[in-house]
Amino acid sequence: MKRKLSILPALLAFGSAWLASSCDSYVDITPLGSLTVDDANTYYELIANPQRCYYPSSFAYLSDDLWPKESKIIGFESTTIDAILFTANENAERSLIADNNLYENMYSDILRCNLVIDNIDAAPGTDDIRTLAKAEARTYRAWNHFIAVNTFAKAYTPATAASDGGVCIMDHYGLELTPVKSTVAEVYDFVISELEASVPLLQETPLNIYHPNRAYGYGLLAQVYLFHRDWEKARDAALKSLELNNSLIDYNVINDNGGIARYRVYADDNNPEVLSYMWLASGWTAEAATYYNYGVISPELVNLFEPNDLRYSLFFRQSGTTISLYYDTGSGAAIWTPATTTARFTYMAVGMRTAEVYLTLAEAYARLGDNAKATEYVNALRQHRLSGTYSIAQPSTQVEMMQQIILERRKELLFGFHRFFDLKRFNTEAEYAKTIVRVFPIVNTSVPQQTYTLRPDSRLYIIPFPHSARDRNPNLTLNTDEK
User: Fold this and answer.
1) pLDDT by residue (tens digit) across 195-217?
2) pTM above 0.70?
3) Are 283 and 50 within 8 A, CB to CB?
4) Could you tell me which residues come within 8 angstroms of residue 191 by beta carbon, excluding any fewer than 6 positions away?
5) Which residues on adjacent β-strands are paired with residue 53?
6) CB under 8 Å to 312, separation ≥6 — which residues?
7) What is the Cα–Cα distance from 123 to 416, expressed in whole angstroms?
């Protein structure tokens, strides 16, 4: 009998509950339709998920990089999650309205990985495909646990990580209904052990772009080590990633050939910098729409770009009738160019790019006291992003070097989780902690301007678990003092 497994909608909100699999249902995972899982190759196919996505509304405005249309905020300061976060309203009942599919998507992807890991050994097929499939599944399982703990818990801090509440570690596909929440330290230990075991087994060139390649694996391991403050290991993993893929697109070439509207060499899956394909929404068409709502950068960030920075001039606008529904002209903010879609340029805000690995490596060197090497990798990136003069002088202190790297991360790693995660981790260090101050509104003169302040230690930086998950699992308590 062919073995058919079921993933039910209730299972997708995992952290909540595992439901049983049965012989008379099916796996509906890929755009190709229902798959009958009857051999190792089919399990391997399940790992490639073109809809791997992470919608940003739960955390988007916990960042000094983004800016909303004023009508989205005025009058909604206590009733919508965007307005609560933007105005830093800690008195609002955030936990009642913070739910979206972010948590569900993380844990449904973990479930998908566990299904492969726990069942492939019993399926007909070769040992090679079983080993590869389990390595790929463990890599994505680790990635999802990593973003979950950095979203729903405190940033890793050595002094408190062993007692800080984390997330549920799901390392098997089973019937456990109420998994116990692990600490932040335990989640990091799990993620690191998963990646250290699986990344060397990944292929340099996998079957398609939705399978993890080895350069991505080492890039992810470097990122995890960086957040875990293992500077030497972060450096070594980043170097291994760049040995496999150190490609950087020269934005001068795009600019000289008419910009992204005309020069479409890097569209679809042709961006050599992209190490993993993941989306801000359910696929690239929905992601393009998401940029209208969460693709406006703040006046502060606009002013941080140098006049010759092509990352700004190629991709952002401050005027135009087509963007008026999403953007306030005259605010000083700027909106991601509507013409920028995957059909013209694949930016990949959530998935990893080589540019991030360069910056990870630069930070690792800076943390180790090697400002010369850190400057080298910052300038290697800037050379491909700025026209004319691009190099920075080597800073004289570690703090100055780190500040330069933080600045480059803001300008290069737009949208996605990057700035949100960076603020959380840097806010644990006195030298880099930041109080975000917003004066708002700017354009609407009929409403009195107010100053909103987001403290470095604000509980808002910890996203509440969704009610759908907590209702099913009483062990899944919030990591803040909210109810």
Assistant:
1) 999 999 999 999 999 999 999 99
2) yes
3) yes
4) 142, 145, 146, 149, 224
5) 279
6) 302, 305, 334, 411
7) 37
